[in-house]
C-alpha cells in the first residue's frame, strides 16, 4: 500500500501568547481543512511536546479516541520518525488516517526548557555537566571546532549557511526574520560569540509555533482536496546521548538514516530537487549535507556557497522559526514545495523533496523522501 500526505499547516508563529494546546489545535484545524477531512475521520495520532503523555492529552483535548498513537520523544527528528511509523500503521491496517502534530510556546514562556533539561543520574549529567557546558550549544560548538580542525573548513563556511537561510526568509512573509534584511558572512562573524566558534547568528531562533500533517492511503488521498504527496522512503539512526560517547564526532547518524531512506525509495542524492534540513545550528547543516551524500567531507561550505541545492526554503530554524523542536515544519515545507504552492520561493520542477530531522546533540537522525503522485 502507498501512503501519502494529504494535509499540512502551521499554527501562528513567532510571539503568539497562545498555549501549547491552542497552537496545536490551530495547526490541526488548518491541516484538516487543507486535506478536506473532518476530525472525526482521524483514527491515528502522533504528537510530542505537550507533556510526557502528549498523545493522551492532545486526544482528550480534541475529543478523539485514536486506534493507534505514538509519542516517541527523540527531539527534532521525532516527526520524521512519526512519518515512518504512520506509514507502517496504515499499511498494517491499524488505522486509516494519521494526524501528526506539535506545538510550543517557548518564546512567549521565555523558556528554552526543551533544550535545557538534563535528567539526573545519567552519564551526561555526571561526567559532562560538571564542566558547565551550555546545553545544547556548547556540544554543537565542540563538533564545529572538530569540523574546522579536521576538514580544513573556515568559520566563513558555517556563516554561509545562515546567509543562505536569510535569503530564503526574505521571500517568506511568515519568517521571523522576513523584514530583517539581507545577512552577510561578515555580519554573522561579528555577532556575539555564544560558544566558540558559534556566534548568535549561527544559532537557531527561539519562537512559538506548531504544525500538523495528515497521512492516509494514496487510494483514499486521490479523492481529497489537495494533490497527494507520496512517502517514497524513510530511515533513521540513533547513535548516542552524551557527547563523550561517540568515537568520531563527525560521523553522525545522518549517514545511516540517509542511506536507509534512499535505499527504500530507490533514489539517490542526485534525484532530490529540494531539501529541508534541520538547522539548529549552522554546523548541523554542513554535516547533514555531507552525511546525506550531497557533497564530500569538508565540501559543504563550498556547496552552500555555490547554492547547488535549494534547501530550507522557508528560511529554516535560523530565520523562519524554531519552536523547540522544528522537525514537523520541515515536512510542511517539503510537501508544499512538491505541490508547487510556495510562490516566490517555489523551486521550479520540485517533484522529489527530502526532509531530515536531528534530535538531541546529533543524537537522533531521521530522513524522509517525498514525491509527487504519478
UniProtKB/TrEMBL annotation:
CDD domains: SCP-x_thiolase (cd00829). GO terms for molecular function: acyltransferase activity, transferring groups other than amino-acyl groups. InterPro entries: Thiolase, Thiolase-like, Thiolase_C_2. It holds the Pfam family Thiolase_C_1. Gene3D superfamilies: 3.40.47.10. Residues 235-371 form the Thiolase C-terminal domain. This is Thiolase. It comes from Nonomuraea zeae.
